[in-house]
Each structure stands twice: as structure tokens, then as C-alpha cells.
UniProtKB/TrEMBL annotation:
<feature type="signal peptide">
    <location>
        <begin position="1"/>
        <end position="17"/>
    </location>
</feature>
<dbReference type="InterPro" id="IPR055567">
    <property type="entry name" value="DUF7143"/>
</dbReference>
<protein>
    <recommendedName>
        <fullName>DUF7143 domain-containing protein</fullName>
    </recommendedName>
</protein>
<keyword id="KW-0732">Signal</keyword>
<dbReference type="Pfam" id="PF23631">
    <property type="entry name" value="DUF7143"/>
</dbReference>
<feature type="domain" description="DUF7143">
    <location>
        <begin position="51"/>
        <end position="209"/>
    </location>
</feature>
Amino acid sequence: MNSLSLTAIIFAGLAVAAPTIPFVAPNAVIPLTHAPTNAPTLATRQSACFVIGKTTLPAEVADVVTSIQSAVTCDTSKKTISGVPDVTSGDVTFSSIDFSQSSQTPLEFALSKFATASPLANTDLQTFQDELNTYLATEAGIRSVGGSLGIKVPKFFLEYQVSRIQTAQGNPPTDAGQQVDHLRDKVLKNAAGEDQSLLDQVTALATQLS
């Protein structure tokens, strides 16, 4: 074997053994393999018409936004509490059941406006769910701008009523946070400054489940 052939063999071996180094242009953008952890929240903000501000929502509220946003529409020409657009779910529009426009206290308004049928099981669950959706959406919008949360009293009361109706209709919530006793306590806690006779009415409702 002559020296020229030997040199060719050596270079061929080096070419096989050498690792391939990809060329990367100086201004190339290398994509991330994982989306940023806040991507779902950002997407939710962009698609939920009622989340109008930039204040970070609590995780629980952000989850609610995700669950209801497809059922809620906004009338951006009409504003309600804290500048949140008037929202609609089904046949219910928030402005038609807005506690803040009443001369009653929040709990007094809730007890009178969101009363159930008798017997309880005959109550139209969908109507109450739509009413609740408008309150949940408006609350999320208020939170997004750091507004006052007086809405929590009627909102929790609506959740309470929905839970009572579901229980009476044979479909009690399995989530402990949505069960009657837990929501009763939520209403009582947030309405602690209300008249005792109103609080007693809330307590009594927890025993009326048929």
C-alpha cells in the first residue's frame, strides 16, 4: 500500500468518527420545548370577554373563567360593576339581576330574587345556573381590575341554591366545595354583617332539600 492510499484511509476514518455540529445562525431563534407556565392563563384572558383588567386572578377563579367562558357572551356597549361588560348566559343577562342596582342589602336581595320553587325539586336548574354564570363572570371581571367584591354574597348564595336544587333533584355535587353545608357557611361568612334574621333564613335553607 502506497502512502497516498494510507492517507486517504486515515482521513475517511476521521470523517466517520467526527461528530456532526449543526450550523446555527447568529440571529436564529431556537423554540422552547415547553410553553411558559402562564400560557393557559394568558390564553384565558385573551378569550374571556369579561376579563377586562390585568390583575392576576386566583387559580380557582381562573379555572371558573375557563369553565364558563364558552357559555357567556358580552355586550361591550353596556357596562356594569367596575366597568365589566354586561354578560349573558342563556336567557339571563347580569344587568337584569344586578344586586348593586337594588336598595336592598346584598343578602336581602339574594334571598328575595333567587328564591326557589316549592317543592325545591321543581325549580328550573338551568335558569339558576345561567344566573350563577353571569355572577361568576362579572366577579372575575371585577377581580381583574381590582374592584370591590361585594358581589361575593349573592354569588355564593346562587351557588348555594344551585347545590340545593341539584341535591333535591337527586344529583348532589360530589365536590366538597360545592356541597350544601360548605356553601351555606360561605354565604354566612361573607354576609356576616347582615341582619341576623336574614342569616337565619340562610341557615334554615340547608335543611330544606326536598
